[in-house]
Each structure stands twice: as structure tokens, then as C-alpha cells.
Amino acid sequence: MARDGARPAYDPAGHDTALRSALQELRAGRWMSMRTLLEQTTSWWQWTQRTQVLAASAAGTDVVRAWLAEEPHSAPALVMHARVVVERALRAHREGHHRTRELWLEAWHACDAAARIAPHDPVPWVCLLALARLDGEQSWAEHRVAPPEPMLPPGPWGLLAEAGKRDPYNREAHHRMLQFLYPRGDSERLAQAAGFAHWAAGSAPPGSALHVLPLYVRVERYRRSGGREAALDLHWVAEDATREARQAFHSWFTLTQNAERSLLDMNHLAHALWGALQFREAVQVFDALGPYWTPLPWAHRAAGPGDSQRAVEVFLQARARSRSAARGGGRRG
Fold first, then answer.
1. Which pairs with CB-CB distance under 8 Å and at least 24 residues apart come from 16-24?
2. What is the largest distance, in Å, between two alpha-carbon atoms of the chain?
3. What is the pLDDT of residues 102-159, one digit of tens each?
4. What is the third-level CATH fold of 1-184?
5. What is the DSSP string of 120-159?
6. Domain boundaries along the sequence of the chain
7. CA-CA distance, 275 to 245, in Å (whole number)?
8. pLDDT for the residue numbered 30
9. For the chain, which has fewer Cβ within 10 Å, the N-terminal or C-terminal residue?
């Protein structure tokens, strides 16, 4: 458990020490540890998580290309190649780079190749879902499929279903779907994103990370308001906000172990419980985080999105207030 005043560290590997070791080797330009780690990964949720973190680190290097050159028929290498080129296409899109469409098409073909060589793997389909957000006009037919529920908008539902066939309730697949809905911008589309998050959480089994999805939408709504609301106003303490936070805590956090939890999910849950004045529960999540944190969602409480120093301070204040209130025996502190 981190001390009350101890500053947290951002580490994409979090509590996954084996992943941390592979990342260190990857940053040094070596791929053998990455291959060994992926060979030893037996669950789809961990495979999805590890390949995502590795790709984010590898995207600015040629490490995966070197692996693929040595083992051109390796399914893990082809899946990692798809991961990397998708990450590059998404970065180009965010930066408005002139090569975005070229990288997008390269990534699509890499995903298609990975799906063919690894037909039981959900990650190529998760990657295709990630690329769907680049099609802002939904010009591709696979990005405007009719939804499974009439209140939901058309979108890449077939891609989500393919990922779900291979790994039901895949966390990243549903987050990619949520990100597809976000860029639409207007309040109606944000309401549709909220509807999707609640639909996904409502259909997820106990212990699923999808129970945390509504907390992301609530943060996004706050972000779009420009953070004009007070730190602990009705946006965070309203009955539905409290219900969402407690539902995520009891239906996900209490039924899982740290090794299964995303650091980003835990930070969103700690943030939501603190905001909803559920301090005893918040302390349990802060304790589970230990020395780690993620800048989001805390950065949205800072003066500016790039104010990392202020984001850390918000995290520390939230953790300290939650622990103080919990020791005092009350929720409100």
C-alpha cells in the first residue's frame, strides 16, 4: 500500500512484472523476451492487454519488423505487426498527418492477414474496431451495420461481434466501440455512447471490466463541459453517478484480483468513488493501485489537459481525503 503522501508512478505494465521485463528488452531493441512472454500468455484478456501495451511501446521502433523478418510465419509476430501499424495509423490520425490514409490501409491489410493466420484470436478484430474511428463518415459498410438494440446507433457492430465470438465481453473491444462513438461530437451522440456503455455493462457477467464503462462516459461528459462544474458537484454525487460507481465496485472490483485489472479502470473507479463520496470503497481501490496511477481521468480535473503536475496533485488529494474520511468512519470526511 502506498503511503498517503507518496507520489504515484505511471507504468503501463502496472502490476504485470513479466510484461515490465519484456518492455525493458523491447526498448533496448530486443524482441526475444516479447516472443517468450506472448508464448506464455494463455488467457485472451491478458493477451489483449499485453499486445496493446507492447505495441504502444514498439510503434516508434523496428523491433517487431525485425521479429517478423526472422519468423515471417509466426502468428504472434503477425498479430504484433498488426498492433503496431494500427497504433501508427491512429497516431497519424490524431496528428493530422498527410500519410494517415496510407497508414490506415496498410493497417487494415495487416489486420486481415493476422485474422487469417490466427482465426481464434480476438486481437485482429479489436484492431479493426480501433481503425473504424478513422472512418468519420462511416463510408465503409462494415462501419454502419445495424445495432443489436434499436436505441443504439449504426456502427461496426459486426467487428465487435467477431471479437466477442473469440473472447466474450472483451474489454478493449468495447472501449474501441465507445471511442468510435465519441468523435461524433454532439450531445445526441454522447447520449448514444452512454446508452452503449450501460447496455454493455448491463449484459456483462459479474467480474467483467465492462461494468466500469459508464464511468468513462461520465468523465467524457465532464470533459466536454470544459470542467466548468465544481470538483464535487452534482455531476459526481448525483444518484446515478453514485449508483454507477458502486455498481462497478461491487460487480467488478470486489470479484477480481489485481492481476486481472486494468490500471486505467482502477483509476476511473477510484476517481468515481471519491467523487461520489464513497470514501471507504475508494480507499480499497487506492490501496489496490499501490504505487501506480494513470494521468486520466485526473488530468480532466487539472487547469489544462497538459498540466501533469496538477493531475498528480488531484490524485494525491483524492487519495488522502478518502483515507482520512475512511479512518474517521464516515463517507463524507
1. 16/49, 16/50, 16/259, 19/50, 19/53, 19/54, 22/50, 22/54, 23/53, 23/54, 23/57
2. 60
3. 999 999 999 999 999 999 999 999 999 999 999 988 889 999 999 998 889 999 999 9
4. 1.25.40
5. T-SHHHHHHHHHHTT-TT--SGGGSBPPSSTTSPPBSHHH
6. 1-184, 189-333
7. 9
8. 96
9. N
